[in-house]
Amino acid sequence: xxxxxxxxxxxxxxxxxxxxxxxHSQLDELRKLSPERAMLIESIEMNWSTPDVSxxxxxAIATGDLPRLSNVDLxxxxxxxxxxxxxxxxxxxxxxxCRKLGHPFEAVSNRKSEQLWAWELKxxxxxxxxxxxxxxxxxxxxxxxxxxVKRVRV
Length: 154
Ligand SMILES: [Zn+2]
Hints:
The chain is of the alpha/beta class. Helix content is 40%, strand content 19%.
């Protein structure tokens, strides 16, 4: 059975969800998005867990996707890694981290992204680049100009 992100929990029919791997934190997320759907999901037999996210987090730091991922996102990536199951997700940052890890994934509804990319900060002045580690934009250490986040192919 696959690991499922919250988009799958919202849109897939109950029969298709049965036995899927999910994080406890997704249920809280789902309750906010759709209480009816959350009740339905609770009535289905699924594999719930609360995983350790450290490996998922390191991979997200390596690609620069960390600022774009919630803790729920990291947990679902962690579950996919730990179970070795394919992850269904429409989130391009989650897909990107899976690709970095060489972990199989598939889109819930949208087309899946084709290319591995990374996020980097690029100085608008001297064009120097550095790794993205937090969601904050910062000034260039070389020339003092602002740095902007850019998506780059790797
Ligand atoms: Zn600069």
